[in-house]
Each structure stands twice: as structure tokens, then as C-alpha cells.
Specification:
The chain has a single domain, classed as Jelly Rolls (Sandwich), CATH 2.60.120.10. The chain contains no helices and 12 strands. It starts with 8 loop residues before the first strand and ends in a 17-residue tail after the last strand. A hairpin with a 2-residue loop joins strand 2 and strand 3. It is mostly beta strands and about 150 residues long. It has a 5-stranded antiparallel β-sheet with strand order 1-9-6-11-4, with no helix packed on it. The protein has a 5-stranded antiparallel β-sheet with strand order 8-7-10-5-12, with no helix packed on it. Strands 2-3 form a two-stranded antiparallel sheet. Bound molecules: dTDP-4-keto-6-deoxyglucose. DTDP-4-keto-6-deoxyglucose binds next to strand 4, strand 5 and strand 11. It holds the Pfam family dTDP_sugar_isom. Catalyzes the epimerization of the C3' and C5'positions of dTDP-6-deoxy-D-xylo-4-hexulose, forming dTDP-6-deoxy-L-lyxo-4-hexulose. It is an enzyme of class 5 (isomerase).
Length: about 150
């Protein structure tokens, strides 16, 4: 099994399909992972684009990808964390439809891997605040992750 970063939760979510379309569940106030409501926003990522790296000092992220597909990558550099140094890759989209909950202070970012733009929904625990986000360059940083497609 792929390594899991302490505090990160990945939970499959239901899709209820009928001939008219479908319902895609995301987050309920009664879910275990729910903490509090801050804001919902949608980040659209174009094919092949990397949106990384960032860390939230306070916000808990709740991500789901209802359209398109992404590779979501997380890196734990938290002092004292039992999974410090672990890197985790998660593929998200309607074909592997899940809610991913990310605690504060975990580096994360994503790459659009579908042929259409992908929509990343974030039901965040606090409203967007640029002062609680730290960023670093996707390709030049201490994490050393290679975002390139590998034809294995
Ligand atoms: C989220 C947000 C962004 N912005 C501005 C700040 C930048 O000038 C521009 C793009 O924001 P950013 O570079 O942060 O976008 P993404 O890389 O798509 O990341 C955003 O969406 C992913 C999913 C995250 O979880 C991030 O926390 C969130 O910042 O919109 C605002 O003015 N208000 C907002 O609520």
C-alpha cells in the first residue's frame, strides 16, 4: 500500500447515477472528517499544468475532483510527525472519486492529468486568507519531486 501521511484522510464518496446524470457526494457536517465550514471554492487546472507547492498554516482542506482528473501530491515536513519525509501521490477524479482531507502544515500541490481542465473543489475550514498560505516553486525546492510524466 502507498504510504499515508499522518492526519491525511482519503475516503471514497458515492456517485448516484441515473439516466439524467448523477449526484456526487462530497462532505456532510455529520462526517467524521468535518471540522468546520469556512468557504467552498473551485480551482480549475488546465491539462498538464502544475499548481504547487503550497502549505496552509491554518486551513484544513477537503478536496474532491468532480470533473477531469488530477495527480494530487503531498509531502510531510512537519517537525515531530511520525511520517515526516513521506511523499504521497493520490489520483483523483470521477473514476476514483474520493474526498481527501489534509491537515494544516502539509505541503501539497496538483497536476492536471486529463485532456480537459479539471475542477478541484475545496470545502475549506476557514475563508481564503493569503497570509496563511506559504508557497514554493513547483520545480525548484527542498521537496525534490519530479512532476514529469514517466513512461514506465
Ligand atoms: C482561493 C482564492 C484565490 N484568490 C486569488 C489569489 C491568486 O491571485 C489567484 C489564484 O490563487 P492560487 O494561486 O492560490 O490558486 P490555486 O493554485 O488554484 O490554489 C487555490 O486552490 C486550491 C484548490 C487550494 O487549495 C489553494 O489553497 C488555493 O489557493 O486567485 C482569491 O482572490 N480568492 C480566493 O479565494
Amino acid at each position: 500500500m502507498a504510504p499515508m501521511i499522518e492526519g491525511v484522510r482519503i475516503e471514497p464518496r458515492r456517485q448516484i447515477v441515473d439516466e439524467r446524470g448523477k449526484i456526487m457526494h462530497m462532505l456532510k457536517s455529520t462526517d467524521d472528517v468535518f471540522q468546520q465550514f469556512g468557504e467552498i471554492y473551485f480551482s480549475v487546472v488546465n491539462p498538464g499544468v502544475v499548481k504547487a507547492w503550497h502549505i496552509h498554516k491554518k486551513m484544513v482542506l477537503n478536496y474532491a475532483v468532480p470533473f477531469g482528473a488530477i495527480k494530487f501530491v503531498l509531502y510531510d515536513d512537519r517537525e515531530g510527525s511520525p511520517t515526516r519525509g513521506v511523499l504521497q501521490e493520490v489520483f483523483l477524479g470521477p473514476d476514483s472519486y474520493s474526498l481527501v482531507t489534509v491537515p494544516p502544515m502539509v505541503w501539497n500541490g496538483f497536476k492536471g492529468i486529463s485532456t480537459t481542465p479539471a475542477i478541484v473543489a475545496n470545502c475549506a475550514s476557514i475563508p481564503h486568507d493569503p497570509d496563511e498560505i506559504m508557497r514554493c516553486d513547483p520545480f525548484d525546492n527542498h521537496i525534490g519531486y519530479d512532476w514529469a510524466l514517466k513512461h514506465q
